[in-house]
Amino acid sequence: MINRILEHRPHRALAACVRGEADYITTTKVLAGLIAERVPVDLDQLYGKDAYPAQLVDWTSEASDQQLRILIGGQAIAPVALASEPGRRKIAHRRPQTANRKQKTAEEKQKTQGERQGAGRRLQHSVLKTAAQQPANRNPFADLIDGHEASVEATSKTHQTFLNFSRELTQSYGATFSLQTKLLELAIRPGETRTSPFKIPDSQCDFPIGPSTPAFSRDMCLEFATGSVAKVLGPEFAVVDTYKTRVRLPDEPLMLVDRILTVEGLKGSLGAGRVVTEHDVLPNAWYLDGGHAPVCIVVEAGQADLFLCAYLGIDLAVKGARTYRLLDATVEFHRGLPRPGDTIRYEIAIEKFVRQDHTYLFFFSFEGYIDDTLLISMTNGCAGFFTPAEIRNSGGIIMPAEDTRPVKGQTSTDWSELVAVQLESYDAEALTALRSGDLAGCFGSQFEGIRLSDSLRLPDGRMHLIDRVVKLDPNGGRYGLGLIQAAADIHPDAWFLTCHFMVDMVMPGTLMYECCAHTLRIFLQRRGWVTDKPGVRYEPMTGVKSILKCRGPVTPETRLVLYEVEVKEIGYAPQPYAIADAHMYVDGHRIVLFKDLAVQMTGITRAEIEALWEKQGKQEAASDRMSSKPPIFDRRHFLEFARGRPSKAFGAPYNIFDEHRFIARLPGPPYLFMDRVTHVEPPPWVLKPDGWIAVEYEVPADAWYFRADRTPAVPLSVMLEIALQPCGWLAAYMGSALRSPQDLRFRNLGGEATLHHEVRPDSAILTVRTRLTQASEAGDMIIEHFAFEVSSRDKMMYSGQTYFGFFTSEALARQEGLRGAARLTYRPSADELNASLAYVFQDEAPHRPEDPESDPAPAMALPAKALRMIDRIEAYAPQGGPAGLGFIRGIKTVDPREWFFAAHFYQDPVCPGSLGIESFVQLLKFMARERWPHLVDSHRFGLLTGKAHCWTYRGQITPRNQEVTVEAVVQRVEEFPSPTLMANGFLQVDGLNIYKMEDFGVKLIPV
């Protein structure tokens, strides 16, 4: 029917089912027709290992040294009967003709006869000859044969009809077998050297070198990367295009093979081979770093080992079931990095393929030249082909004990530090400043006034490879010379995944190397190796062999990558240089090791760098703390507003509140965290959204809250107050208290904020910018919304939004708490409570903010009495909570004599909401100590950064209350890169839920 419809159009119709014809005959006809039309056909289902039940065939990968030569197309092999004893009737057999065979030996005649008559006929002749030569007395079956001979002869006529039918069936099978053997002939050619079952003859396997006649152009290389392999390597590889995955070059922009000059090796042989390629470094190349091609590009441009292994037939062997992964390599540079206008020529060789069970490995190397000068050599290259399951279960990098023991690093003679360095971290904003050359914006005031030359800046664009530095320890690492950890969030659509490779998306190992190199550059710049001198750049050290070991991929499923660099040698020769070991972790698993990563700064010497810092000098602490602008309002005004006459703070309109009326106040010392107002945009006494105000607070290096919290960072409760107190001052400045004849109290109702960085004792001046964003009034109630930003030296530390309310005392007395909280709070089971831990805290100094004493404590110490907001742990269930990650309940007895009631507020004592949140954070600290007890002396508590937290207040704690209960339910636990807990919870006062906390967390930081 189809043939009739398409009679006058080009087509080929094949029937998959024919009446009266055996299915296997029809199927082989269809396959033959497809092959005739050059349609890729995989014959493994007919002739491969999977075509036979495993229990029937014992497959072996060892080649036999015995061969049986069968001429395809000869006569079918027929069964043969044994010769009878002498005197009995013998089965006649006809010898082959020998006409026209002159001057040939008997052995040659026998060979020629065998080729003409076929292997089956020759085998029959051999068997009959052997049987005829046997003596009669060696046949133990003579009597049995005599007894059955008559019966066989009597039934021969009966069998004749069956034999006629069998002959027709045999002829049909013979035709089918002949067709199948022709199909096999198209897949493998007999008579060749049997080094591989995938050999494909090619008369042009060695292409001449010549710039005008490359073997493969850039367009053909792109076709190999993203299109059809058959279009590049020929129709013999058409079946490879049907596989789900195959070996490819990367797609743009990482396809760096501009031309393939020559290819040597036998197609499909899985033998040795060689390819010569070129890459042009263009003036506007996207990857240029400091005016040169970076190390990752120089190594990646030698990527044609991918092309070569495909040319040699690896896809024909693995059939799309396995994917390429680089395992090992050693890289050595012999000269400086290429510049625009250079052409790099790569001579790449695959020495051999090795098969281990079903896994294929190949070993390769390359050399890269600019003109005739050796640029780079890569040796000990090893890549393999693995299934997804093998990749998932690779186990990562296993470090032997001798590679983890502390070893003293090496420094140059007379080594001295250029700048003071401490344990630090840098967020995305800090690295953005660094990329723009703003050293102070990332590293702080020591670098004020120093600009970084363009050639030394951290690359951006596609080469924006790290997002933040989670840890810089100047004395850390295995060698004691410094450790730095940088993190990157992996997005499924990252450019380096989508181009490398199609279908099989993985991050190139060369970019992993570059990420580690960028991380090391940040470390060196923080140590003071900076300059604005043009032309200074980073280059690899010549003569140092860097070793790569890769045991896992970065894929679209990867969430977080951490690069850890340990400096092992640092100094001057005379240019600055450093050698380090780098490790790469994927979602907590170590998958890559770069040993002896070596970087030097060319174009500058030790003397020049030291002269820069001598000129820079040291800034005096007093000048560091000077305000940039004269104050409009200062601490005297704040103290008047907190405890004195409000009119002395704001002017005559507030005279009424000096003696006759109540007004909501600022907190007083020691809970007042404002020093001056330096900028005011909105007009006074006008309650409407308007411009910003700027408030400054000087962080005392010996502030009481550092000693009380026992950490070298401002506690979260104090950070909240630093951010929120300017909101209260702005509300008073706008005349909010004058909006109602009733006396109004001021309460925070909630907010959302993000801590970007810890505030350390050396943070000097914090600048808080605050503005009113919305105001609404209803009767005697006013609701005001604010935005705030807390920064240090133009570095954002804390930011968010919050809202407050003005209420009458009668309204506050009727507090109803959080609506619906009873349904949201977690109720631990009886089993959880029975298995829970209880704990009672002991009072430790300082007991009050003004207490000068401090009791000794481990690095991971809970707050002292002056700031501790929990008296006892009533229940801690490590596996409690909906997620089974932990539940805890803490209790505090309300003491009207507590210092904070007197400080917050004058004439309106109430526990600060920030201290309620502090109690919640302290529960998380307790859980962290219990979860990671082995880190108590080596780590300290830190606050969760980079993640927004929320709070809601619908009530207050006053001296009249009896007991506060705080509960936390852990939502997330992380072990890497820092042990971290994040939780939600509620605070109750005398059984009423009044605070809700969401997404607050703590982490552990090495001391």
Kindly describe this structure.
The structure is a single chain. The chain is α+β, with helices and mostly antiparallel strands and 1007 residues long. Helix content is 26%, strand content 26%. The protein is built from 28 helices and 31 strands. The strands form two sheets. It has a 16-stranded mixed β-sheet that branches. Strand 15 and strand 16 form a beta hairpin. The longest helix is centred in the N-terminal third of the chain and has 46 residues. About 12% of the residues have low confidence.
User: What is the 3D form?
Assistant: elongated
Share of helix among residues?
25-40%
Q: What can be said about the biggest beta sheet? A: 16 strands, mixed
Number of helices in the DSSP assignment: 28
Low-confidence regions: 73-142, 173-211, 618-627
Q: Got a strand count? A: 31
Rg: 41 Å
Beta fraction? 25-35%
What is the average per-residue confidence, as pLDDT, rounded to a whole number? Answer: 85
**Structural class of the secondary elements?**
alpha+beta
**What gap, in angstroms, lies between the N and C termini?**
83 Å
